[in-house]
Amino acid sequence: MKGIISLYWDVAPETCKALWGALEKPIRWPASHAMFSGPEIMMGLPEEARNFDPKALPPENQTIQPEVGELLWFYQPKNFFKIDPSEFWEIGMFYGVGGRTFGPTGWIPCTYFGRMTEGLEAVAEQCRLIRREGVKTVEIGRLA
């Protein structure tokens, strides 16, 4: 399944610039279903694509109530949460209504950097499979 994402250059320019650079080469990464936030799949940004300083990104276009098809960026530095001391570079996508950025420690505002504008229904069906069947490999990159 293929979807087209339109980036929010006007309201999240620094995040879009960073992720556009990170996705110069397409990445394939295991995506899992979120536990607390509803209809969301999430995937990490692999080491080879981490070519920017995530701590330098300002909060942009943040919310806790995303719209269907929106993509988020979230960075968790090492030891940020007591329950999970890992560093985490996350790209998430909400594929259905009722999503919220809520985790085991409560509400977490995230930067929304784009929205899937084509192919969402077919991609959403695959996201529902991730929820039922478990982790699936997802590819994300620039459209040539």
Summarize the entry for a quick read.
This is DUF3830 family protein. This protein is of the alpha+beta class and 144 residues long.
Per the CATH scheme, the topology name is Cyclophilin
According to DSSP, the number of beta strands is: 10
Order of helices and strands: EHEEEEEEEEHE
Instruction: Tell me, briefly, the overall form.
Output: globular
Total number of helical segments?
A: 2
- The total number of structural domains is 1
Secondary structure category: alpha+beta
Poorly predicted tracts of residues: none
The CATH architecture can be named as Beta Barrel
Q: Report the major sheet.
A: 8 strands, antiparallel
Relative strand content: 25-35%
Helical proportion?
Answer: 10-25%
CATH class: Mainly Beta
Mean pLDDT: 93
Distance between the termini: 17 Å
Radius of gyration (CA) equals 14 Å
